[in-house]
Amino acid sequence: MANSTATPGKALGTPGPAGRISPEGSQVLSKKKLQDLVREIDPNEQLDEDVEEMLLQIADDFIESVVTAACQLARHRKSNTLEVKDVQLHLERQWNMWIPGYGSDEIRPFKKACTTEAHKQRMALIRKTTKK
Fold it and tell me: Chain centroid to CA 115: how far?
């Protein structure tokens, strides 16, 4: 994000069918790439045209929302540069996603739910009453 007044996630290119940006723009996921991904999962699967368009739109919306939120985090840091840690923080906090191989190599600890004594007592009472 070199310029904080730029609109993040807006691609330049010529609008195609249904207002979509053409492949010569900076579209991240093309129909060809989507079809390749589907073939990786199931070589016999074929998506309908409407399903492809919907999945491409969902992917574009997701990318735009992540970039927008990451830019806001960068601005909050008082930085004019969008960094990997901004995207990582948004993905982790909002989508519970962690992309391995980017950023720090530290091992992230698994967060185990803290069980209080009161909760244990309630669960014991529930188990006792359900055994009868």
Answer: 30
